[in-house]
Design a protein that fits this description.
mainly alpha
Length: about 80
């Protein structure tokens, strides 16, 4: 559904939200976030305390992101 905004037609807010939720980019973001949270949990268990999201994020990017992305791309091409 569209609404008039100024001189242009824009998608209604609900449609824009659904568009974002269904986008490949958003789905990739969610998958990456899930991996980072899993890494945070594993590394926190090893350390014996919560290492925090930022530390887990940086550690995951340095150690795992490239390989994770390659696997995701191969899985996507195989589907």
């Amino acid at each position: 559904m569209y609404k008039l905004a100024g001189n242009q037609m824009e998608p209604a807010k609900e449609d824009a939200t659904e568009l974002v939720k269904n986008s490949v980019l958003y789905k990739e973001f969610l998958a990456e976030r899930e991996e980072i949270l899993r890494h945070k949990w594993i590394e926190s268990e090893k350390a014996g305390y919560d290492i925090g999201f930022e530390r887990a994020l940086l550690d995951w990017i340095v150690k795992h992101r490239s390989a994770w992305r390659e696997r995701r791309q191969k899985q996507g091409k195989g589907s």
